[in-house]
Amino acid sequence: MSETHEAGRSLPQPGPGAGRKPLGPGLYFIATPIGAARDITLRALDILASAEMIAAEDTRTLRHLMEIHGIALGDRPLVSYHDHNGATARPRILRALEEGRSVVYASEAGTPLVADPGYQLGRAAIEAGVPVFAAPGPSAVLAALTVSGLPSDRFLFAGFPPNTASARRKWLKEFAAIPATLIFYESPKRVSEMLTDLVTTFGTDRQAAVCRELTKKFEEVRRGTLSELAEAFAGQSPKGEFVVLIDRPRGRQAGPEDVEAALRERLARMSVKDAAAEVAEALGLPRREIYQAALAMEKDE
C-alpha cells in the first residue's frame, strides 16, 4: 500500500477499487498496456478491482499486471479466453453475465477487439441483451499513428497480412488505392518481406513509417519512402512488435470537381485557410493553389 506524508505523519492511501461501489452488471472491456505498465488507466484499475469475474486473453500477463498495481484477485474467478478456447469459455462467461454479474475482459495488450479474440464475446453479449461497456486506453494503432508523421484525418486499420508471399501481395493490392493512411501489424519474422512486397504493390515513393516496440525500452520509429524502409530492413531479423503505416496514394491528381466538392464541405464548417490546408493535404495538391480556389468560391457565394 502506498503512503503519503502530511504534517510529518504517514497516511495510508487506498489501493485501486477501495471504497468503490460495486460495478453494475455487464461486460466491461478494458485496454491494457502495450509496454509500460503505468499506461493503464485509473478507471481500468477500478474495474479490475471491482468486477465479480475476470476474463483475459492471457491470464498470466493480467495477473502480473494486477500484482504490479496492487490488485488482489481474491476468490474471484479468473477465466482464460482466447482464440483456441472461445467456444468452450464463452458459455461460462455468458452465464455469469445473464445472472447479472459484472465481468471484465482484458486482451493480452492494447485495446480489446483490435486483432484480439474479444469480438465474438462482445457480439454474444450484445445478442444476449447484456450491457457492454468500454474503458478506453492503450492502443498500438493510435500510438503508431500519433508518432508516424502521416495524415491522421482518415485511416484504416487492416490487421495482419497473410503469411505467404503470394497471398500477401494479392491482399495488399486491395488497399493500394484507398485514400487513407493504412495501418498494419506484422511479425518481426516477416516485416522485411512485407516491406519488399509493399514496394512491389504500392510503388517506391509512398511515404511510410515502421514502429517497433512502442512504449517499451527499445522503442524505435523509422520514417521514409517504402523503398528506403525496405532497404533499411533488408536481410535483418529484428525483434519486437511491429506496426507498419503507409501514406495515402498521391499519384492521381484530383479533378476540379473533386476539389470543389471537398472545399464546399469544409468551408461550411471552417475558415478558408483551414479548409484549403485540409483539402490540399487530403488530395495531395499544392496548398497555394487550393487556397486560391477557396477564395474564389467564397467570393462567388
Automatic annotation (TrEMBL):
Broad class of where this protein is predominantly found: cytoplasm
Region Disordered, annotated ranges: 1-20
Domain RsmI HTH: 254-297
Presence of keyword Cytoplasm: yes
EC number, UniProt record: 2.1.1.198
Catalysis performed (reactions): cytidine(1402) in 16S rRNA + S-adenosyl-L-methionine = 2'-O-methylcytidine(1402) in 16S rRNA + S-adenosyl-L-homocysteine + H(+)
GO molecular function: rRNA (cytosine-2'-O-)-methyltransferase activity
InterPro entries given in the database record: 4pyrrol_Mease (IPR000878), 4pyrrol_Methylase_sf (IPR035996), 4pyrrole_Mease_sub1 (IPR014777), 4pyrrole_Mease_sub2 (IPR014776), rRNA_ssu_MeTfrase_I (IPR008189), RsmI_HTH (IPR053910)
Keywords, comma-separated and alphabetical: Cytoplasm, Methyltransferase, rRNA processing, S-adenosyl-L-methionine, Transferase
One Pfam family this sequence matches: RsmI_C
Tetrapyrrole methylase domain: residues covered: 27-230
First-level EC class: transferase
Cellular compartments annotated: Cytoplasm
GO cellular-component term (any): cytoplasm
Function: Catalyzes the 2'-O-methylation of the ribose of cytidine 1402 (C1402) in 16S rRNA.
Protein family (similarity comment): Belongs to the methyltransferase superfamily. RsmI family.
Name of the protein described by the UniProt record: Ribosomal RNA small subunit methyltransferase I
Organism, scientific name: Rhodobacter xanthinilyticus
Name of the gene: rsmI
